[in-house]
Amino acid sequence: MDRYSKITNKNQREIVLLKGYPCVWGKCRFCDYIDDNSRDLEAMRALNQEVLSHITGEFGVLEIINSGSCFELPKETLEDIRTIVQKKKIQKLFFEAHWIYRNRLDEMRRFFGIPIVYKTGAETFDYDFRENYLNKHASFKDAEELSQYFDSPCLMVGIKGQTKEMIRYDIDCLKRYFKLGTLNVFTDNTTDVKRDESLVRWFLEEYRWLEDDPSIEVLYENTDFGVGD
What are the Elp3/MiaA/NifB-like radical SAM core domain coordinates in residue numbering (predicted)? Predict the structure, then answer.
């Protein structure tokens, strides 16, 4: 399991994959990576401290991810991150949080005292597909409402049941309402959600230009950021 990496193309930053408590929702139909969690505080903190020790601060920007939301990281790990932020002169953080935490985002901003870019797994702006098929439990009505809370949505493309029109709509909303975003090309896993190969081929051709868009990061594999397994 790789837990430290550097992103050197778009939005240069260091990134670490830490271990936290179980995801507060944990019922998304497509997700099988929430098992990277623990309830053993001492073990989590020891692992997280080792991962954090690799941070150099060379970009002044750090992204912290875990198999859930940043609010599920142990308090002790958050304190360790704050120490690293101050020691390495980190000027901006990237965190991820579920829609459930939308009214708590400023807690982290006050705790760290530096700007935070909040990512969130929106998956799609098609409400019916997101809630009734993917079981995301993120009840925002549209992209505009989501943009009132979060800075950078993560969307998925290439799932059986999606359509070209849905993907076009998602990317249009992403460009219209957000300055940053991530597109994850779906990869089959242990869940019953499956990849649509023809839709993926269409997306890769139709939206090849996104590779040159500095505001959008496209992940062709789950590990393209250099962390994970």
Answer: 13-213
